[in-house]
Amino acid sequence: MKNRFVKSSLAALVAMMATNAFAATEVTVYTAFEADILAKYKNAFEKANPDVAINWVRDSTGIMTAKLLAEKNNPQAEVVWGLAGSSMALLKEEGILKPYTPKGLENLHAELNDPQSTQAWYGNDAFFNAVCFNEVVAKQLDLPKPTSWEDLAKPVYQGHIAMPNPASSGTGYMQVSAWLQNMGEDKGWDYMAQLHQNIAHYTHSGSKPCVQAGMGEVAIGISMASRGAKLKTQGAPLDVITPAGIGWESEAVGLVKASDAAQRVVDWSISKEANELYVEMYPVVGHKDVEAVVSNFPNVQQNMANMDFARMGNERADVLKTWSDKFDGKSEAK
Fold first, then answer.
1. Domains recognised in the chain with CATH numbers
2. pLDDT tens per residue across span 286-305
3. Which of 37, 131, 186, 206 could lock onto 169 through a cystine, CB 3.0 to 4.6 A?
4. Sign of CA dihedral 9, 15, 16, 18
């Protein structure tokens, strides 16, 4: 009996020591990825890297960018993964992102990456805006189908449109930037003032306006093309429309604190395996060997706005202040 007790105690001690020896190193990763895909990315990474665990900290693009800037002198994140390229450019300029060359960089589409010679961020995917138009609600309200941005400023749509607040949503900010860059400053602000008359509310999530349109809470949501395609595939009565000058941007990864575990997160995030997950939702991804057709995804390429991402990053604070001063009164409560 005594020998059995000793053997049992030793076995428990060995098991405990083994558990401690192989406890996963936790990496804090800041992200603006949609919440419903985080578990999938975490599980796939940890399956490939069982000795590293991801601790997600998630919020919308604007809030996450502000958080990273506020923590500049005492960074809490180790990796930023799934944040807009314009935000990444700003974080690099502020010294928050560190130059790093991940393994497998040669397999990526260069146009989605940091364009500077000392690179610090790399595109995972490209995401696009769209207009989610509820055909059932529109028929009930006798609303015509819009085909251009100018259409959405017509009085017939008053109170029937939702769009993301650009100060808290990257989806919103990239469309505001697209209007300003492609219409010109004066015409862009004039257009947004006209559109504002038709806005029911501004949301703090990029996907929410499309979700609301899909549920019939509004007739029209200026939102994410990928969310519109997904909802339409699930049966929502949506037409996913891409007016000429649709906003788009890359979603990217970058290193904040250098460590073996953090670098492995960055390396894996640009891998073919990771890109095969991105392409389930985004038809344009960073890896050259990964492509797919997403059901009901609109033909965005013919209507893409010309986007200067460095300008988006540099002008962000001024544009958001002006926008908030003019239009924030219709934003949903946070």
1. 2-126+249-278 (3.40.190.10), 128-248+299-330 (3.40.190.10)
2. 999 998 888 898 988 789 89
3. 206
4. positive
